[in-house]
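Appendix B. Chain record.
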Amino acid sequence: MSRIKHALRLIFLSPSQFLYVRRMKRSGLFDRKFYLEVNPLIHWIFRFFPERHYVLFGEAAGLYPNPDFSPKAYIKHNPDLRGRGLAPFDHYLRAGRHEQRVTRDLPSDGGGLSIPLPKLRGAGANPADYAVVVHIYYHDLWEEFEARLKTLDFDFDLFVSLTYKGDETETLAGRIREAWPRARVVPMPNHGRDIFPFLHLINAGLLSGYKAVCKFHTKKSPHRQDGDTWRRHLIDGILPKTGTRALLERFVAEPDAAFWVADGQHYNDPQWWGSNLNRTTELLQRIEIPVDKDRLSFPAGSIYWLKPQIVTLLRGLQLGAENFDLELGQTDGTVAHAIERVLGVMTDAVGMHILQTSQLAALPAPEPAAPGRPSYVSAFYLPQFHPTPENDAWWGKGFTEWMAATRAQPNFSGHAHPVLPSDVGFYDLRVTETLGQQAELARDAGIDAFCVYHYWFDGQRILEAPIDRLLERPDIAFPFYLCWANESWRRNWDGMSGEVLMEQSYAPGFAASLAESLLPYFNDPRYQRPDGVRPRFVIYRPEDMPDPAAAVAEMRETWRRLGVGEVELGAVLFHVEGESPVEADLFDFWVEMPPHGLVGMDDYLFGGPDGDRMQADVMPTFSGLIYDYDAVRRNSQSARYISKLPAHTIAGIMPSWDNTARRGRDAHMAYGANPVSFERWLREMLKTRIPHAYRRELMINAWNEWAEKAMLEPTQQYGTANLDVLRRNL
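Structure tokens predicted for this chain:
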């Protein structure tokens, strides 16, 4: 009988109710999609007639007809309407909207920052493999959360951020610290919902280094019919009362899984963009990720487990308090809401995916990973970070690579320039201890040696101070070998045109002189012999030598005559042929040096045959080239490209490439390079290229090419993320 009565009420509205429904439809202010999304318990029949459901039942229950209208708040903030028996939303449609009446509750602090933003310190080694991050806005929910935390069957580091509400916050913070002595408890201003406090921890480096991070918060969602039920479902999904550890280990073992969410919380339909598309697009331009407006997949509810790769990208956004909207109780359209969509686009862009609890549980047990580590890993190393008389004369007093790097200006909206160092700072390579610090970072990440550029011009040296001073310091552990950078130095930095500053003339006898000059380095115990016998030496542009075969023969004969014996001699595969062709078997090995030879005509996003294909706005004065980093990655795996390589080639990879610091508006750059796209490329290389590379070796371009944005060293934008990539995979 009850169901029959409800059905009759649905069909036979009173005249006033019928007119109310018609006004709602005509106004366009009743948001059907929103109403159905936030009220999932509505009977399926009423889901075809949401306006009628609202008029008959929803308004009396306090449900929101759109994100910005609360029936209860409307009556509370407009006391002249109390006791008149009015339908709040109907009054608003007929009169209230024209009178600009208040339609929702506003925070008591008006959305301002109630306490100063805490300055976080103390990033470092993590005692546990996992972190659990809890944001507390509704203080009364802490007991519920604490009970759940005590049931977890794995060790974790706990981080708790609390929206500051005066003395009650201080009291709760004290209780948490007493019960959880290892926890990091951080009172925060009421700003950016649960998202900004989470990013504040990430930006401080406190969430780096974990295998996975869990994030949840005191979600009540007063605009939803099922707020408490929904919150518990979300938390139960990622922190089940039993078996969490097993599921978590499976999540970590799944290399392409970015998020673990409760069932039903992977939203996968472009209808959920709402008013967030533009802001999502703007935010993702900061890390060079385009948005496909016809595709939207994201972890809904802001309660999930996430992998370190996503933590890295969130840090890369470099969002501070100033980027978030004032807190006015919005239910959509803010930066905090856009971040939810950002997470999904990030996940798609780096080739990862979102797993729901039932999907995770159904995964087969992970198979042991096949050993994929290269036998030897090198990184090109630039010694340009100290002043020289020549650079003083050419570029101004005190010039170093840092000056170029710090002067870089963006070439498109969101372009992250200048790129600045973090952990190692603005170093001077005349301080030899710096080389030891760099070597320690590299060794910890799985790098075996630095391939150091050697600048020798018919006996004249430049940038020699760092490596020559190293020879005087046998206590500094810095494994290295040399690469003769034999291009002439030119005014425009690209080595191919412009005024010649220092010419490579290849005077008669140059090969023997060069070979003999290398003996002090070969004799240093830190000079590398990757095969255990021969010292290694690389030539950057062998085709620039007048007679490459004769020069190589002269070098080898000189080394034999001087007692060095055989040298493992290699050359770089350059993308532009020189005047003197080189036979593939002239060298013991060749070295790939991305992006050389890996950019096709179809890969250009700007400056190529298809014109401007950039989603971001390019500066009107920019006349350079922008190509797709992911296309370069794909090209490096293609059978066609690989078939053209000499059989004895060391596989090469680059974390990024962007020479804006050197060439300004004429720059060449790989769009879409970030530590996670770098990791995707590296993982593919370990499977497809390393098994067939020369001696299973890998070369990285580069360790510290800051003016070409090709560096592994820590940056302010991404911290140690590139080194973390190597550490995870090597």
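Further analysis of this model is presented in Appendix C.
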